[in-house]
Amino acid sequence: MKKRPTIYDVAERAGVSKSLVSLVLRDSPRVSDAKREAVLEAVTALNYTPSRLAAGLAGTRTRSVGVIIDDFSNLWFVEALAGLRTALAEGGYALSVADASLNAHLGIDPIEAFRALRVDGIVLAGEASAPAVARSGVPAVVLGVRDLGAELAELPVIASDEAAGGRLATMHLAVQGHRDIACVSAPGASAARRERGYCDAIAELGLTPTVVRAPDTGEAAAREVAAELLARAESAQAPRPTAVFAVNDPMAVGVIGAARELGIAVPGDLSVVGYDDSPIAAYGLVSLTSVSGDPRELGEAAGQVLIAKLEGGATQIASRSFTPRLVARGSVAAY
Amino acid sequence: MKKRPTIYDVAERAGVSKSLVSLVLRDSPRVSDAKREAVLEAVTALNYTPSRLAAGLAGTRTRSVGVIIDDFSNLWFVEALAGLRTALAEGGYALSVADASLNAHLGIDPIEAFRALRVDGIVLAGEASAPAVARSGVPAVVLGVRDLGAELAELPVIASDEAAGGRLATMHLAVQGHRDIACVSAPGASAARRERGYCDAIAELGLTPTVVRAPDTGEAAAREVAAELLARAESAQAPRPTAVFAVNDPMAVGVIGAARELGIAVPGDLSVVGYDDSPIAAYGLVSLTSVSGDPRELGEAAGQVLIAKLEGGATQIASRSFTPRLVARGSVAAY
């Protein structure tokens, strides 16, 4: 095992004194730009992270944790935050949240804002900031995001197995007797994993896959591609699907909306399964069967891992994968 | 006009030196609990706010602004943040966001976490933290929340006129020929203002008001009270309303869900108007006519006011009220 780099290693590489490194880590204004740059270059190159003790002595501990998400309008993170709170309560850490666009007006990545605020640790729950977090050297854990690339390969990842979730949704429809099951998918790594689970299940069942991809992950785009898919029966090019798996809940609502416009009853003539078990799935008008990745449980696990890093100085922590579950409601009927 | 208190006034009242006050304001650990308490008591009593210059000299400027909201799952704030960003880009301020429950695990108010992070200013966009913000002495502006009580009477309030919004929704239904217009309301100051607008319009029109109040602001609670209201026709105690104004969009979706369960067509047999113009209102399955408070515009105005306070040291800034507008979709028909 490689020896953990110390502040002396950073000082040597940067050609400065240990106390100057300490000043840079505290964001002191009393440092020239050239020296600051040399120190930060050395911190990155050596992958240096201040130990808890050293940070404590240098007065840089704020007992706060920054959470970086991609988008505040994705409500998944609200539940994940509740789990993080449970875990971080023990260590007495305060939480701050930023999304990728929160400080876009400054042209800076959220990690930069959190560094300026001297957070002790980072929970990375979005894809956009991954490279910047890797460069920052701030102790971090990845929540709910996979395959972030080699830069972040050493960070522990706490995530739900989304391919298993896509498989689960598809099998649920097959067990109800459906054979013409389509998938309404979207761009992005998360949608791709859910779609792969669908394809795996369809292959396993010996059925024919039908995947249509909307241009984005929103309701309107899904409504449009679903309308095309469902209207196909008219031209008899392909059998109309009797069931659809949509890779998120707003897209599933789009599918239901398209069906309604065409006079296709849900679940009478078409069964629909969504993903994420968001609040809208439980609305009476929607009553959507959905896959839940239990974000609260994930958040709690991520908080525990981060505390282990911050308090114990642990460097090698295993990633953890959680299996999603199905939440049955009124949008699926037997075929 | 009262003279603005200085750091010397605080030091004199607390019985300590000016530099000790400065240490406390920088959250230095090198201060005894007793002295820290005395200084914070004096800061509160004198309503002391460090001037920009003094703060700059003391090294306490972080060029960051904290936004306090009640609940991350209310998407109103996502648009308001976009407006804030536009305004704060000029001053180069970074943004952080916290909701009332984000640091509930520590038993501290979000304002305390923001003080620890040394934010320069606060945007208060929720009701829960109002008293703590008033005590904190951090320069603040109130966004979207009214009637916070005498403690905060001196803070500028940038808000939408929600009574005007309730009136607008009701008048829109009346113009379409509806005479039996009910209001599905909820607890909370915001719902109360929207309901008051409804009542004012109904009185002005010489109609009879029907207000039912759900136990909370959610979809399920609204669905339940709407089901009761719409089933009344059976017992012939009162005419069934031909139109409903719900005080937020999820509640309006609850009303539509209840109507559907009872075989009442929307908008054929029942017109529905919601409030907030949230993403769900634009979903094809929902297609909800709603009132928009233009949170982006509000956010931008609030950011401008905060910059005026932080940069110009302005102490007397007028509050501003914005008039909401109606966004017509498919949930209203002529009677």
TrEMBL record, chains A, B:
Sorted alphabetically, the keyword list is: DNA-binding, Transcription, Transcription regulation
Fetch the Gene3D superfamilies from UniProt.
3.40.50.2300, lambda repressor-like DNA-binding domains
One annotated GO molecular function is: DNA-binding transcription factor activity
**Which N-terminal residues, if any, form the signal peptide?**
none
Where does the record place the HTH lacI-type domain? 5-59
Which superkingdom heads the taxonomic lineage of this protein's source?
A: Bacteria
InterPro entries membership = HTH_LacI, LacI/GalR-like_sensor, Lambda_DNA-bd_dom_sf, Peripla_BP_I
**Is Endoplasmic reticulum there in the keyword field?**
no
- The molecule here is called DNA-binding LacI/PurR family transcriptional regulator
